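Re: duplicated header lines in exported structure tokens

Our pipeline writes sequence and tokens for each protein into one text file. With two proteins the header for the second block appears twice in some exports. Here is an export where it did not happen, for reference. First protein block:
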Amino acid sequence: MPYLCWAFLYTSTGVNSYEKTILAQILQVLDLYAADMRKQFEALHEKFDSLQRQVQALNEKTDEMDKRIEEMDGRFERQIAQLERTVNERFERLEAKLGHIRVEPVETQETVDFHSVKIAQHDRKIRHLLHAR
């Protein structure tokens, strides 16, 4: 009803009744328009508040998801570290076994060489004994 103050000014300045009626109708339309605008602003304000609540809820969900992702990341890092330790231990055991396997053929070759020399010596002795008879 703020436009009624304008109507009061016009009524007191000597405006005729027809003009007063038109002015009153214009002011009434303006009041209706202003009331409608206020309702629209209130509706927009309510929608804005609703959107703010939704954004806040989304922010809370996002924060919760970030926390859960960080926890999962920590678990994965711990599992990967444990897996690396396990794999390293197994490789070390495998290297130790392979080290023994490498030593065994060398030792076997040395044994074969020793026996080959002995067999050759015995063959010479046998040939020498056979020729000496």
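Second protein block, exported in the same file:
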Amino acid sequence: MAYHISQETRLRHKRVLLLEPEQKSHNDRTWSFWTDQPTPYDAVLAAEWRQLAFRSPRIDVVLPLRRYRYCTLRGLDFYRFVQQALGARPEQFTLVQASVEQLENTPDGVVAHTTAGSFSARFGFDSRPPKPERRADKRYLWQHFVGWEVETDYDAFDASTPVFMDFRVPQHHECRFVYVLPFSPRRALIEYTLFSGTLLPQAEYEQALREYLAQHLGGKPYRIAETEAGAIPMTDHYFEPSAGANIVHLGTRGGRVKASTGYAFLRMQQHAARLTTALANTGTLPADLTGDEWQFRLFDTLLLDIMQREGERTSEIFSELFANNPVERILDFLDERTNWVENFQVMNSVTPWPFMHSIANVLRGKPGMREVPAARQLVQA
């Protein structure tokens, strides 16, 4: 948000206070996204590609991208890029290292109560991780992963083709796949990813990565140069876009994580740009803070319901999507850019019964849950 404000000349007279609990000085994450437009961050991208691979027991395809490019951005490069932009305007931006304990609406704006004192402003933008109270009619999963950036002394990776999803790993009644970002023939990020209700012991992620690398590198040696791990909430829980008239929610707190895929970076940037443009044009916030459309939230809910009920079906669903649609249509759909005709084409390309089951669950207000066999229930009891 601060970066977008820094680039808007009509807001140059507005002073901005940034409250961060810690310095952004290490590479704690990697973002990937697809786009058909230039971005402000093109100069600091770690890599970009013009085709994707999708792999499952059913299909193995390489999909050229005509409009889109698939991009990866390292967290540290992004932080430095933004810090440089804000540092060029010290009279406008002030950074205070502090944790926000409470944001309070006032008649004149907002007051932030922090570990470094209290601060007043006209508007507050809150990106603190949310802690929603779970509702019985909503679905709550995690997208959790461990990634190894590995190096080899031999050519091991196709640097022209990231692997969007590789479902050729044991599913264990869940949605599990491997994601591969090849930065060169001898260096790649290999990420073991799951969608499930509970996290795994660290050793299980690492064992899955070792098995995948042993299979795909033919048992040849490799070095682990960097590691990363994370857990992203995947839920159809509705996150309020604001808290009163003067506090806007950003990031995960503002529902910017795509509930069925976990992609968030461009959604966050587009949200920040929307808010910045409204502030510059009108001096206030837009009436519609997000621009979200209800039908895409419904599609997310249906897929989450399937993942929660029988996650192993996810491989079949995505296999049907990639087998029966142009890749650009799939990416448009996942990016919430399709029209009603295209939405119908996408939904008509997959087996309907799992989705019909989920629609029934939505209408009943009762999320799908995996049925535990009676014998297993006795053992657990």
